[in-house]
Amino acid sequence: MSPFYFGWLRWIMVYNSSIRYIDDSLFIDGIDLASIVRQVSTPTYIYSLKRVGENYRRIREAFAPLAAQIHFSVKANGNLAILRSLSRAGAGFDCVSAGEIDRCLRAGAPAQDIVFAGVGKTRAEIAFAVSAGIGWFNVENLAELHYINSSADDLGVDAVKVALRLNPQVTANTHPYMATGHGAAKFGLTADVIRDILTRQSDYPRLSIAGIHIHIGSQLGDTAATLAALDAALDLLAAHPRIRTINLGGGLPVAYRAHDAQPSLGDLVSELIPRLAGYDVLLEPGRSIVADAGLLVAELLYVKRQAGQVFYIIDASMAELIRPALYDAHHEVAPLRKTDREPVVAQVVGPVCESADVLARDRELPALQAGDHVALMTAGAYGMSMASNYNARPRPAEVVVSESGDNWRVSRRRETFDDLAQSDK
Ligand SMILES: Cc1ncc(COP(=O)(O)O)c(C=O)c1O
């Protein structure tokens, strides 16, 4: 039996409830991906609104014993159709810029359902958020409190709700670029600073300091650091029983490898229940709601054999999907049409002039030809939202497949050269 045979055995038919092969064609819900590519071309992000909704409900139900309010973290994916769909389903939103707040408002989200985090909010952003009437500021800086208070004063607004972001000095089990809760990180306030603020609340008469926020990182590998961070927050709050809200941030992990099971939330929730009795709980999941609902479709431009390697040069790059270059992240690569050609071990690379422009290393894939199409899987989070115009590449189109799963539309058109040039003088 050829070793490749084992390779073929590893091929899977079903990625999740929305993305799977039917016969030899890769489908998203009821739609053959190739039929979208014929009309929209590549590279293109394609999202299943059905899967987004399922992920949202799965998390909401898992955290139901805590009655947690879910705020989708917009940085993971700011597509307006996704924001609208989540807002209709009852989600709030976690934003890190006035631009993200604006998108949520345009998507029809009530301002009260928006929380505003971020280590460097400008005074203009603060004024924008106060005048919009957002639900919460997650504050990371002493001076920020003064700015919010004076903005509220200028606008005549009272009781602006604030959660203080604690830097709990715990190191999450994740990629170092995604760990935000360790002492050397720029994020949050130390426990001492928070204690001090809580004894001087009268310095901020327009504010209601009513919560503690912790977010220790993304794609968290286990629950230990989250629980340690929460314990640090509870310790701090023991002397301040008036504060009844804890925002646990995001970070719920996602399975990026085809054979990894979807991480279960049950263990985390059962550890949280006894600790959080009597608290109002907010969550800010991003990745876990959208990652596996989206993929990036690309065309194979060239097959290049060089230095003993096979390079599949595709028309998507680190400009459209930076995660492999930035975090050494893994995305499965799936051909839109299965073939029975012998597999090869390939380097899947983009056209950008950087050696880091590798989307997948040493991947066993079928022998593909120029003109074939592949999907980079689990690309719905931190894909398009981190895309750039590097190398003057217009950003890709985004397609959404409806919640019913049987029709699709371009929700954001592909950028043009005119889009790229229009702001230059
Ligand atoms: C403050 C905050 N909340 C929520 C999130 C969302 O994290 P994730 O997408 O891992 O759920 C992030 C991501 O970095 C964040 O910085």
In the CATH scheme, the class of the largest domain would be: Alpha Beta
The strand count comes to 20
CATH architecture of the largest domain: Alpha-Beta Barrel
The coarse overall form would be globular
| Biggest sheet character | 9 strands, mixed
SSE class: alpha/beta
Mean pLDDT reading: 94
The small-molecule ligands in this entry are:
pyridoxal-5'-phosphate
Strand content: 15-25%
Q: Give Rg in angstroms.
A: 23 Å
Write down the CATH topology of the largest domain. Answer: TIM Barrel
Tell me roughly what share of residues is in helical segments.
25-40%
Write the layout of secondary structure elements.
Elements lengths: L2 H8 L8 E4 L2 E4 L2 E2 H8 L3 E5 H14 L6 E5 L6 H9 L3 E4 L2 H9 L7 E3 L6 H10 L3 E4 L2 H14 L4 E6 L25 H9 L7 E7 L10 H14 L7 E3 L18 H11 L3 E4 L3 H4 L3 E13 L2 E6 L8 H5 L5 E3 L7 E7 L8 E9 L6 E4 L20 E5 L6 E5 L4 H5 L4
Parallel strand pairs: 4-19, 5-6, 5-12, 6-7, 7-8, 8-9, 9-10, 10-11, 11-12, 14-16
Antiparallel strand pairs: 1-2, 2-3, 4-13, 13-14, 13-18, 15-18, 16-17, 19-20
Helix pairs in contact: 3-4, 6-7, 9-10
Bound molecules: pyridoxal-5'-phosphate.
